[in-house]
Amino acid sequence: MAKTAGPSKSELLKGTLDMLILQTLTVQPLHGYAIAQQIELLSDAVLTVEQGSLYPALERLQKRGWVTSKWGESPTGRRARYYTLTAAGRRQLGAEISDFDRVLVAINRVMRRA
Amino acid sequence: MLLLDMLRYRLRVLLRPGRHARELDEEIRFHLSLEAMQREHAARGRLSSTDARWAAQRRFGNLTVTKEEAREMAGLGFFDTARQDIRFALRSFLRTPGFTVVAVLTLAVGIGANTAIFSAVNAMLLRPLPFKAPDRLMLVNLTVPARGTNPPKEDAPWSYPKFVVFRKAQTVFESVTLWFSTQGTIRVGTDAERTSFELADGSYLPTLGVRPAIGRNFSPEEDAKPGGESVALLSDAFWQRRFNADSSVLGRSFTVDGSPVTIIGVLPPGFRGLSGRADVVISFMSQDAQQLGEAWSHGYELVARLKPGVTSAAAKSAVKRLGVVVDEAYRHPDIQNERWGALARELDGTRVDPVIRRSLLILLGAVGLVLLIACANVANLFLVRAAGRQREIAVRLAIGAGRRRLVRQLLTESIVLSMLGGLASAAVAWWGVKILAALNPVTSLRMQQLGGVGTVTFETIRLDPMAFAFAAFLTLLTGVIFGLVPALQATRPSLTGALKSDIDRSRLSRIRGLTSRNMLAVVEIALAVILLAGSGLMLRSLGKLLAVRPGFDPTQVLTMRFSLDGVGRDSLPPFYDQLVERLSGVPGVTNVGLTDCPPLNGGCNGTILVHRDRPAAARGTEPSVGVHWVTPGWFETMRVPLVRGRLFTNADRLGAQKVVLVSESAARAYWPGQDPVGRPVSVGQGGFYEDTAYVAGVVGDVRFGTLDSLPKPDVYISYYQSPRGRMMMFLRTAGDPRSAIAGARREIEALSPGVPLYDVRPMTERVADAVGYARFSALLLAAFAAVALALAALGTYGVISFGVSQRRKEIGVRVALGATRQSVVRLVVGQGIALAVAGCVIGVAGALATTGVLRSLLYGVEPSDPVTLVLIVGLLVTAVIVASWLPARRAASVDPSEALRG
Q1: Which residues contact B671 (CB under 8 A, 6 or more apart)?
Q2: What ranges in B752-820 are assigned the alpha helix state H?
Q3: pLDDT tens per residue, range B739-749
Q4: How far apart are CA B771 and CA B371, in angstroms?
Q5: What count of CB pairs under 8 Å joins A to B?
Q6: What pLDDT, on the 0 to 100 scale, is given for residue A47?
Q7: Residues 35-94 of B with CB under 8 A from A
Q8: Which domains does chain A possess?
Q9: A46-50, B543-547, B641-645, B892-896, range with the lowest pLDDT
Q10: How far is B404 from chain A (nearest CA, A)?
Q11: Average pLDDT of chain B?
């Protein structure tokens, strides 16, 4: 069961996919395709994921209780699964962002001094 | 909230995996269609819809991998892999039916036999007694110090006055009750029947936590004082059988040994008292007031329920102190300074005789060894099979399968196989339990040997949820045990060896496989030696027991009893005269004799012997003897030899000079080096204590106790000089003793109409019963040992014949180079003998270390008996030689041209 890695335009930092998904869900519940679109859109297509890898990530987030899902109707009238951020997910996102910030600051500091 | 979300998600995934997969499909289809639509739209007609779909899929990535990963993330990966492995395992088992059948049958026998024996252990030793909170019930007995040659007793029964003192003084029990079990003739209308019943006081049912199903318990008035009204509760079974479950039965009456009893209630179904056999429970206080008032008439059992909060340890020490109180209230009238006491123990601890407990645990251990051997055998089969699959496994390892993954797959295979074995074992267990429950060796044992609780019998052995849980546990355990070794070994990373050509790989990689197979065979042989040694000892002990001469000739003797209610004491001698005369007239009957207590009864009535021609011994130190009532013809009927003097004659009657006969043991013990004939003695029973009787003769020893205990000194008294109502008839017949039953029944009916005959059996059957339990454990152990021997032989055969098939070419070369067939056979058989020797050395050491547990079960054989061990080793080596000779013959017939063609 070899896993195929999916680097497109830029390698997604390991573990950041979860954070990005959680971030896109802060405004409103979205379905999987919309999440993918959002991530691409918001990052000006710099950050792209192999869209398929979204779904294992969503299962993982549900298993941890950060996201719940519910079937609903999409604007086109077709059935779609909508993902909602839970309170626990929001807390997790906060924690991940501050972690990420700390790392960014540290990297920046290193890069400037060099 | 978080927990709830997680739980909901997990339940959804695990309970509806199919739906989860379908929803994921739908979600991905939706995603792809939106992406395709979006691309088509953005391209403004330059992209066909098909191309758009392809593009969307490329953008999405590998569909299958995504789905698999999603399932893995969702926690379903484990099940997917398991399902895959199980399917693969079943397919490969179907491809090798021979292997599968042998392995499944081996496991089925191993697991099934274990489940059956566990069911027996569960019923006899573990299952809670069928009373309310049985762990709170205690059994209390009187203790008697040692007297002369008599050992101290710790299980003496109570008398009513002593019980009253105890009940008044005690503070640790919520309730105490007095009861005993007996037999009698119950007459409902004109129908008479010999049954077991109990007498118990009003606290009996509340103490056990039992309520009458119909009617009521004994009232306080009925329970107040001795000589009260005779009232009874019927067991459910007796009520159904004799009163057709008539609910208007209350107030009706029946007779017990001639006296009327009124029915006041019916007991709940299944409850038959502490004896487990009672048809009727009669009020304790209905007994004769004078009898109950006798402080030295001991015959009642005391059971008590602990007060809440009182531990059994606290109760035990309280009872010890209470014993002193009771002793002070009733000092022994004759024996100075003899202090009786009281002892409490958990009722559950007395549920079975220690001998049964021990032998059941030994059988459980033995059957566990059988399962180990079975596991070793199946592991061996797996190793052989794995050797055939080495290439497959090597290829899989080489293309990147993890060792863990492969071990898991091989373990799944072994667990699937053990599951199949476990399923098949249900049949073996069902059959085994049926046999165990029917064997019921308990009927061959006296009640007192069985301990305090009659509700625990072999008849209660059944397959219950506990047994199934045990079987399921064993199934999983065996799957892991026999699967792990081959799995680890087969996947040992030696890729190159296995991938090389046939001839190359045969060397290095095989040697390791062969050694672990050899080791398994050695283990099997060693375990088989231990089992064979144990069963050999038991069989030898049984043989010695069967060879014991009981002192009489049991062949062609019929025994039977009936109860003599209604015959007065004084009319007994003429009644016996008539009885003997009538029975002697039955066609085929050659001799008739009566006695009060049959041989091999496990013990009879005993008393003291007083020498009238010597100074009186101090009270309590007089010689003790067993005392037996007989008619003059009994010795000839039983072929008990007269050693000196004379037997009783019809002239030894009431009014004539009292005479006794003594056994050889009594003569040796009490008249050493002298002739007892003509000596004056008194016997402490039967009106022979105040008078002086003379020894008329000496007869041979008879084992009245058990076959394995030496005869004790015995004294015989004639029924005609001391009338006694308790008697058993012995009829010697010319042919089959059963043929005399009908005639005897007719004569007794004519003499004493309506009395039920009971205990009608040939004497040989009674003798067989006396060794029933020894035979039961010896044969069961022998059966296990036989299975072990067969498995060990099979295992050796497997190892040797696999070795031969792998070495065909080598053997071919040897033959081509001039090796004779004989030397080839020697080579192969020698290999088997090497295994046997190694196994026997380990096994004999193991046997010497473990057969000590059998000591208390053996008669006339030492646990380290060298003869048994030598025989066992000989048997095993022979079996192994036969098992390796078959493949050796195949090896010898190898055509040398095979080696050249190769």
Answers
A1: B679
A2: 763-770, 772-806, 808-816
A3: 999 999 999 98
A4: 28
A5: 90
A6: 64
A7: 35, 59-63, 65-75
A8: 16-113 (1.10.10.10)
A9: A46-50
A10: 13
A11: 86
